[in-house]
């Protein structure tokens, strides 16, 4: 059974009483809003009968304008919401109201807006499930299914977030309702499209990783940078988890001869091969101010990736202060090194291996 702790509705301060409305704050609190807080529909109706201006939108402390219907949705007052809809008091479109309802309200309020479901795009339906997670209203998973938004088609983003925040109960609920355990589409938060098991690995959620594997998670699926759960566990130094994940991967992925065959087209310099084949793959340059070390991947974990229709080999993704933001790449055809800025999608040329190796600290820090 899911529970929700809710949030404080009001508090006193030196500036007077304030009302918390989800992520918003309202101060001062108009009388009509007090009626909504209390769910006192007759008092609200009397206030409106006395003055039509009582239905005017309210402005929050950050300057956001909210209609009274939005306020009632956030405060989960179904009877007030129903009456305000009849008065045609919205201030926003029905899709946005449905998102507010999924995030803050319960079944009765959400069902008031089920007539909006037919107007929703696939992305908007996904956003509804994501909204459920913001305030922990996981009981609304069942409600969204009941109004015609299937978990199996639209709850993948929420499932991935819950994997790295370790909400086992909600994960089990989504799995029972048919979510794809191997969902790996990109979104604003995860542009490189990891699976839930990869996200859980990156965030050190070893028990969630095992839970997902038990429910069919495929640990061989890599994200768009080529990273998979095993390599992520190595990066976070979770050797016990890495050993477990390696046992689930094809043996040929850990075969030296097979890896040499795979990487032969990249024509790697021998000095580079020696570096990534050694125990100590960290390059330190303490004289630099921004980044004083980077650490190369082990030879067996070098991985090809495609950027702008060109093939590169990922050599390093561990930068001091900047893990996952920058990667050192090798382009075999031009025999040049690059740094790939994963956030801004920019390639910075570092030159040949000899150029880089003569002063790696200077080369790495040249992009900052």
UniProtKB/TrEMBL annotation:
InterPro entries: Ankyrin_rpt, Ankyrin_rpt-contain_sf. The keyword Glycoprotein does not apply. ANK repeats lie at residues 192-224. Keywords: ANK repeat. It comes from the Bacteria. This is Ankyrin repeat domain-containing protein.
